[in-house]
Structure to design on (387 residues):
């Protein structure tokens, strides 16, 4: 499919992602870039200094940016000392102005909610903490290689809640063979009663290169869909709004940073293996810890833009969200009138898609078969000439 060159967002208000790859234990299902944490080494200081150098380089080349969101992900960012984290925050704030609504998020291990970390979080004021709880079921946590217990999570949430200005989110994983509907119901009840603000759900996938890939199985596709239905119904009944297929939030607690990914907003990724989407290009830093620390500022290959693939990606990530995709944006960026796409018309008639206030959205039924929906649209997406 040959598409005209799109006019992507070139706004200088961006998201900033900081990748901290340290993990104290390596989960058998995870294929993210990670580096085993050794508290006796100076690796944390090395990483912080390298990230500072990369931030300075970006500031030199792009001094006019405004930061809409800052997200510390990993890995486990809370393996840093609180003073390391504050140093990086100060570096960012000295490099660029923060938007009035700038959102700050850090991923933390429930076992790391210490008095020193609580003091650092309190110092920052309103922010988000996301914890990789994954489940409240002891058998599931052991299977996933997690070090914490549900009691540890409850204690951590209580400590963070004492700060009053922190929004708390937990990850929830499903699709493990031992997570029966009855066990999942118990997990969901525990989550709903904990008083948290956000839940990110993940269906277990067996990724090449992970220990689980050769040794484990997941529930069938139909069983996974049933799990999702159970999650969706329970969390929405408990007062969570879904705003992306995998993300549920209490009113006012949706992630600004993650919405930027789904809305094709520009962002810079800093740290080893961090991905960026900036000036219409996707690129990432080197995925080697020592090589990154020794030379954090280097030329990185930027993928040529395949506009057909970009259109498909835009549809896929946008239709996963409750807001869907903008018809005007489809016309402006890709020269495509979705309202006149014959597949879109058929999918609306089949109640898999709907038109709402100038946007194309997936229905609940459409979310379950989204890959097929997008494929059908892309197959018949012929660009039209721009005005």
């Amino acid at each position: 499919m040959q598409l005209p060159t799109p006019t992507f967002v070139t706004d200088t208000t961006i998201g900033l992602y900081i990748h901290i790859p340290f993990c104290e234990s390596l989960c058998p299902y995870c294929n993210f870039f990670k580096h085993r944490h050794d508290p006796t080494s100076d690796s944390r200081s090395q990483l912080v200094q390298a990230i500072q150098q990369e931030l300075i380089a970006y500031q030199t080349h792009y001094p006019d940016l405004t930061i809409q969101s800052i997200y510390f992900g990993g890995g486990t960012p809370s393996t840093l000392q609180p003073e390391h984290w504050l140093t990086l925050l100060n570096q960012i704030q000295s490099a660029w102005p923060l938007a009035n609504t700038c959102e700050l998020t850090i991923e933390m291990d429930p076992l790391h909610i210490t008095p020193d970390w609580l003091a650092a979080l309190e110092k920052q004021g309103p922010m988000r903490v996301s914890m990789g709880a994954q489940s409240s079921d002891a058998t599931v946590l052991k299977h996933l290689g997690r070090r914490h217990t549900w009691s540890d999570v409850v204690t951590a949430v209580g400590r963070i809640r004492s700060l009053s200005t922190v929004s708390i989110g937990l990850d929830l994983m499903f699709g493990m063979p031992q997570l029966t509907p009855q066990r999942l119901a118990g997990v969901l009840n525990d989550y709903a009663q904990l008083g948290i603000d956000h839940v990110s759900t993940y269906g277990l996938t067996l990724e090449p290169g992970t220990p689980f890939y050769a040794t484990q199985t997941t529930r069938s596709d139909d069983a996974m869909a049933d799990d999702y239905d159970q999650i969706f119904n329970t969390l929405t009944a408990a007062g969570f709004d879904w705003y992306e297929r995998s993300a549920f939030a209490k009113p006012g607690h949706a992630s600004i940073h993650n919405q930027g990914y789904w809305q094709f907003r520009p962002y810079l990724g800093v740290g080893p293996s961090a991905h960026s989407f900036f000036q219409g290009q996707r690129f990432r830093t080197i995925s080697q810890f020592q090589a990154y620390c020794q030379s954090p500022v280097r030329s990185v290959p930027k993928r040529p833009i395949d506009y057909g693939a970009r259109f498909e990606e835009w549809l896929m990530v946008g239709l996963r969200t409750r807001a869907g995709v903008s018809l005007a944006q489809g016309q402006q960026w890709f020269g495509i009138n979705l309202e006149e796409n014959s597949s879109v018309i058929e999918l609306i008639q089949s109640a898999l898609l709907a038109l709402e206030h100038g946007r194309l959205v997936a229905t609940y039924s459409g979310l379950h078969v989204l890959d097929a929906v997008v494929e059908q649209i892309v197959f018949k997406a012929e660009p039209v000439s721009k005005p």
Q: What stands out?
A: The first helix runs from residue 43 to 61.
